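Bumping with the actual sequence this time:
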Amino acid sequence: MRRAEGRGPRFRPRIQRRRAYGVAFAAACLGATLVGVIALAALLVDVWQDGAGTLSWSFITSYPSRIAARAGILPALVGSLWVLVLTAVISFPIGVGTAIWLEEYAPESRLKRLVQVNIANLAGVPSIVYGILGLALFVRALALGRSVISGALTLTLLILPVIIIASQEAIRAVPNSIRSGAYALGATRWQTVRGQVLPLALPGILTGTILALSRAVGEAAPLLLVGAVAFVPFVPERLTDSFTVLPIQIFNWISRPQPAFHARAAAASLVLLAVLLTLNGVAIALRNRYTKKL
């Protein structure tokens, strides 16, 4: 006891240094967070000041025009919703199914390691490369044309690696004791995955899906290559129709010299943010609902 008390004054400077390092690290992390938050807030304020005066119901329900006062975003908004919903419907089951196979069924082998490495590499490939692949595969090889379905399939390829990796991490985080308990009660592997593993992993899976779809909704480069055009005077009604999306419409307006089109581009950016936040809010509500049930 006396020895411990004698060492106290000697170790006190070291403890104080460690506390100072901890405070400095926390301050650095807070500063890094504030940099991103302040930059985002400044961007939102700037876009709001430029586009709030143009934003109206007629702007949302009108078709594009070469006259700025008449130009609207209806075809681009509907096209974005078409592409985003189709991308989610196609990519979610494929991505989650791939993650389940890799984590629960695939034996440890060279094939599995090769698939894992390729998925990790594909997650970092630039989006323009996926646009080239979509043009070659869906538009030309499969003869789907420059259509809504080609754009959705191209974005599916873009976000699949992110969904697969996030789903794998969520499934891997489920304790093995859950699986062992289910097997001990006589459940099959599929019953264990369906009834125990997937419900516990679903919040993490939905989080990864939200991030992936958030990336997809703002992409313009791959869709330009597969045929999304800047001026579409009609609303797409079928999977084979031509289409445009909000990022391409925004790029078209912002590249024009007239200030009135710049204000339209800012208003369209606000609509795009509203669509993104609404979809994310729905996904987060579903995630929280499943989390509470658990």
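The tokens above came from a reply further down the thread. DSSP finds eleven helices and no strands in the chain.
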